[in-house]
Every structure is written in C-alpha cells, then in structure tokens.
Amino acid sequence: MSKCPAVTIENVHKSFGPVRALRGLDFTIQRGEFFGLLGPNGAGKSTLINALAGLVRPDSGKLAVMGYDVESEYRDARKRLGVVPQELVYDPFFQVRETLRFQAGYFGLGREVEPWIDELLDALDLMDKVDVNMRALSGGMKRRVLIGQALVHKPPVVILDEPTAGVDVELRRQLWSLVKRLHGDGHTIVLTTHYLEEAEELCDRIAILDHGGLVALDTKADLLARGISKTLHIHTSERARNLPPALADKIKRITEDYIELSFSLSEDSVMEVLDTIRDAGVHVIDIRVEEDDLEDVFVQLTRDARQ
Ligand SMILES: Nc1ncnc2c1ncn2[C@@H]1O[C@H](COP(=O)(O)OP(=O)(O)O)[C@@H](O)[C@H]1O
Ligand SMILES: [Mg+2]
Questions:
Q1: Which amino acids bring their CB within 6 angstroms of ligand 1?
Q2: Predicted structure pTM score
Q3: Are 64 and 88 in contact (CB under 8 A)?
Q4: Which end of the chain is more exposed for a tag (fewer CB within 10 A), N or C?
Q5: 55 CA distance to ligand 1 centroid (A)?
C-alpha cells in the first residue's frame, strides 16, 4: 500500500437523470503532486470531488484516497482527505473555533490538535473572529473557516474546489501561501480553478474535463507545448511587400515597420517565416515570439471536444 497513488479514479460514471456528469473517468493523482483539475462550468469537477468525499455516489467505477476505497473503506479514505467545497456550507450556530474543533472531533482528534487550530486561525487571519458565530461572518470570512475545516485533521490529500472564486486578493495570497506550504510539507494538492493563470503558476500536472470526460491529462509543460499557434511580432526596416500568399494569409497586422503573424506550431517554423520575409527583400530588425498560454490551450481543447 505504500506506493499507491494519492487519488485513484477508475472508470467512474455518474448521471443525474439525463445529465451525464461523469463519463468513465479514469486517472490517478500521485502522492505529492500539485494537480490541477480544470474544465468549463458543468464539466463535472465538483461531482468528481464530491464523489471522492463520499457525498455523491457514482453509478459505477471505483474511487480511492491513499489506497482506501471511498465506498468500502469510507472512514479511512475520508480521514486522508480534506475538501474545501465550492459551496459555502456551514452550521450557522457554531462559532469559528468551535467549528474547527467540531470538525477535528469528527476525525477523532481532541486537545492535541489545538496548536494546529491556532496556527490555521492565524494563517487564515481569523484570530479576531474565533468567538463569532458563523452566520455573522462575511462570505470571504466563511470561506476562510471552510479552508481551516478542510485542513484541521492534516489530511495528506487536500482538494480545493474553486477556492478563490469571488474572494479578495488578500485571501488569495494567504491561501496560496498556506497551500504552497502544505505542498512543501508533502501534501498532495488538487486544485480546481477558473483562473487559469493560477493553475499555470501552481500546478505540475493538469487534467482538463469537459462534459464529464477527460479532454487532456498532461504536465503543464506538455500542455503548453500543445499550443496550436504562435504569434510572431516582427520589426522591419520598411513595409513588407510582395510576400507570398501562403504567408500573407497569416498576417494579423502590418504597418510601415511592423508585421504581426499568427502561425501554426505544427506547420511552420519561425526560421522559415523569417527566411520568406527576407527573400521578399525586407530587412528584419527584431522579432518577438509569443506562445499560447494555458488559457489558449484550454479554449482550443474544450472547443475541439465539442465539435
Ligand atoms: N445534484 C445534482 N443534481 C442534478 N444535476 C447535477 C447535480 N450536481 C451536478 N449536476 C449537473 O452535473 C453536471 C456537472 O456539474 P458539476 O460537477 O457541478 O460541474 P463543475 O463543477 O465542473 O462546474 C452539470 O450539468 C450539473 O448541472
Ligand atoms: Mg464546480
């Protein structure tokens, strides 16, 4: 069991009436990964996360956390998982510290967890709110408590479902510093986010879901390398004329001393493009190549999946 993945997802299907939320998902997340789970709204991300937390029962397939089956070994699996849910779910009559203590108690933890609760309250800037009732907190503050709740039992696997949707810059910053620290300590982190630049910055490997299916699963570097197009910004000494039609088709903008070209990564090389421009008698002063970012790749992949 020592080498088992942090998260195992085996051919998982789930429908809600006619909606096929998960269609045979099958992949694993290794221990210690910082894993991104991306996809447009309705792709099935939360359904998968809820299934891992035992809140949604798949129609078929198997799910395991740190080798423990989510259904047949529920308590062992749940103990190893911390989930920051997308929805703000809380007990309005509990105070902040009580909420964390209660959650710890659910996992059989008592007084020994107090120092960690203090650390969490401090890291999440909740120290001056410990005695406040949950219902009296702002949305951002409630989210902080939910993050604390997910981490209170120091689970080896932490899943964050859109944790920064609608939160202020300060909480984002604090959250990422906490999550990076947990990752540095060896926790496996699974992050769902709408902000692709967050995933691009933080995640090593990324799964893209669409309509309940896996559209891509790759390292960030390999996903970025799938970028279909490059944009070439070329500074020229004079206006380029007499360019062959094959190249003229790729021009997005042209002025007296500038050409912007968009071309396909698979079909053209930067060198060939430059040679063609030089052959047309234009002196190239400077070039800058701009590659697709994760957002571009994401849009291309999810669009392809719809066709
Ligand atoms: N409890 C539910 N009842 C009915 N349909 C649901 C339920 N939960 C999710 N769905 C549907 O399943 C699909 C996937 O939803 P969800 O997992 O929330 O996607 P995501 O988190 O990627 O935005 C959507 O079409 C959604 O409307
Ligand atoms: Mg969701």
A1: 16, 19, 21, 39, 41-47
A2: 0.84
A3: no
A4: C
A5: 13
